[in-house]
């Protein structure tokens, strides 16, 4: 609290190295989606360390490859960074590989189409401020004596500095309210946090819903950006002027969001971007369960195109050793039905964002209805209102 700012880092399922640290052949990541862990994921870890009255930054963040659910990373982070009114968030890292045209390792994202595309939603949510700060602030006091006691008892170390999780807090708090530690202060309590399994921010714009165990979804509902992250397949998500019906995904998992490109609310926007993300892997990638020969996922080239074979990937330690596969990276095409109020035209975009193919649109009682899917060979679409 005597310094200019407070900074912290977090990684969901950081690579583990059972032998020599950073051995490129002997490692694994646990193939688990964070969306299924609202109370013990990175968001509560980060939020518990914020200090009242100090700028708060997150200068390293990622869900490292080859986690098959890593498209979730930056939409979840940006939603809660905005709701908590944090000051800066950084992806670690952008690029150390040049124009490799394939995912090259755990952290660099410039060659990861699903992560790069997700940053467009994240930027709108956090930098543009589409998600507003929560209305209520909750604090927990910490003083010098408590901090010294935690040190003496060995509760703190370089990667686990003092936080509210040491002080008996309710980890649901930062999913609903703004939160901070108050040095030498007194507790400022809001209403009791929701006991779950659905956690709704007090401004109603971010909902982390685990009503279906192990099939959780995070929903962002703002005027300029809406998004659904997680296991939403088979469900219809209704927003004021948009609905997203998720029909099919390889892992029953996706990140689908619609954001305004002209800073107007979605109800008025003349140009919007639809992002639809799922599993992504390099050609020839073979993920195996760590310590066994069982193949969890394989991406292969066939005479008909590309094939992805997946076998029970949830919550399994996986590795590809030092063989990450080759270019090109293959991205899943998510199947969904989208409804937008008013008349719109829709275009599938190429990798540079240029119009590639027109998507058929039908009209139903004042709504435009269209379907997206793998036939368009893209992860993003332009939606333009007449």
Annotate the secondary structure layout.
Blueprint: E1 6-11, E2 29-30, H1 42-47, E3 56-62, H2 73-84, E4 88-89, H3 113-126, E5 137-142, H4 144-152, E6 178-183, E7 198-200, E8 206-209, E9 217-221, E10 225-230, E11 236-238, E12 242-248, E13 254-260, E14 271-277, E15 280-283, E16 286-289, E17 295-302, E18 305-310, E19 317-319, E20 326-331, E21 335-341, E22 344-349, E23 355-359, E24 362-364, E25 367-372, E26 380-385
Parallel strand pairs: 1-3, 3-4, 5-6
Antiparallel strand pairs: 2-19, 7-8, 8-9, 9-10, 10-13, 11-12, 12-21, 13-14, 14-26, 15-20, 16-17, 16-19, 17-18, 21-25, 22-23, 22-26, 24-25
Describe what you observe in this structure.
- There is one protein chain.
- With 386 residues, the chain is mostly beta strands.
- It contains four helices and 26 strands.
- The chain has helices spanning 42-47, 73-84, 113-126, 144-152; strands at residues 6-11, 29-30, 56-62, 88-89, 137-142, 178-183, 198-200, 206-209, 217-221, 225-230, 236-238, 242-248, 254-260, 271-277, 280-283, 286-289, 295-302, 305-310, 317-319, 326-331, 335-341, 344-349, 355-359, 362-364, 367-372, 380-385.
- The strands form six sheets. It has a nine-stranded antiparallel beta sheet, covered by helices on one side. A five-stranded antiparallel beta sheet has the order 2-19-16-17-18, with no helix packed on it. Strands 11-12-21-25-24 form a five-stranded antiparallel beta sheet, with no helix packed on it.
- A hairpin with a 5-residue loop joins strand 7 (198-200) and strand 8.
- Helix 2 (73-84) runs parallel beside helix 3.
- The radius of gyration is 21 Å and the shape is globular.
- The termini are far apart.
- The model has no long low-confidence stretch (mean pLDDT 94).
């Amino acid at each position: 609290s005597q310094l200019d700012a407070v900074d912290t880092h977090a990684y969901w399922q950081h690579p583990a190295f059972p032998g020599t640290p950073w051995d490129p052949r002997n490692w694994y990541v646990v193939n688990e989606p964070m969306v299924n862990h609202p109370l013990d994921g990175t968001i509560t870890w980060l939020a518990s360390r914020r200090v009242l009255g100090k700028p708060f930054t997150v200068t390293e963040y990622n869900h490292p490859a080859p986690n098959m659910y890593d498209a979730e990373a930056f939409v979840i982070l940006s939603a809660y960074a905005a709701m908590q009114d944090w000051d800066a968030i950084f992806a670690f890292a952008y690029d150390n590989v040049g124009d490799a045209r394939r995912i090259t390792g755990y952290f660099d994202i410039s060659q990861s189409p699903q992560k790069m595309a997700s940053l467009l939603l994240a930027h709108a949510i956090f930098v543009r401020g589409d998600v507003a700060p929560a209305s209520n602030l909750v604090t927990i006091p910490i003083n010098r004596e408590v901090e010294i006691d935690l040190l003496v008892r060995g509760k703190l170390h370089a990667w686990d500095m003092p936080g509210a999780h040491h002080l008996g807090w309710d980890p649901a708090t930062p999913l609903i309210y703004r939160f901070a530690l108050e040095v030498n202060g007194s507790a400022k309590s809001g209403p009791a946090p929701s006991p779950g399994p659905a956690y709704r921010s007090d401004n109603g714009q971010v909902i982390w819903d685990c009503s279906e165990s192990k099939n959780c979804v995070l929903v962002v509902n703002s005027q300029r950006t809406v998004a659904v992250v997680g296991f939403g397949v088979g469900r219809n998500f209704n927003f004021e002027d948009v609905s997203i019906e998720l029909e099919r995904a390889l892992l029953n998992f996706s990140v689908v969001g619609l954001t305004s490109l002209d800073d107007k609310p979605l109800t008025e926007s003349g140009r919007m971007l639809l992002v639809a993300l799922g599993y992504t892997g390099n050609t020839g990638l073979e993920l195996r369960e760590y310590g066994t020969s069982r193949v969890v996922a394989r991406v292969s080239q066939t005479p008909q195109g590309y094939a992805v074979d997946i076998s029970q990937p949830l919550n399994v330690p996986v590795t590809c050793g030092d063989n990450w596969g080759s270019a090109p990276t293959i991205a899943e095409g998510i199947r969904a039905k989208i409804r937008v109020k008013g008349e719109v035209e829709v275009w599938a975009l190429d990798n540079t964002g240029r119009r590639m193919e027109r998507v058929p649109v039908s009209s139903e009682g004042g709504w435009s209805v269209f379907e997206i899917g793998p036939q368009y060979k893209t992860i993003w679409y332009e939606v333009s209102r007449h």
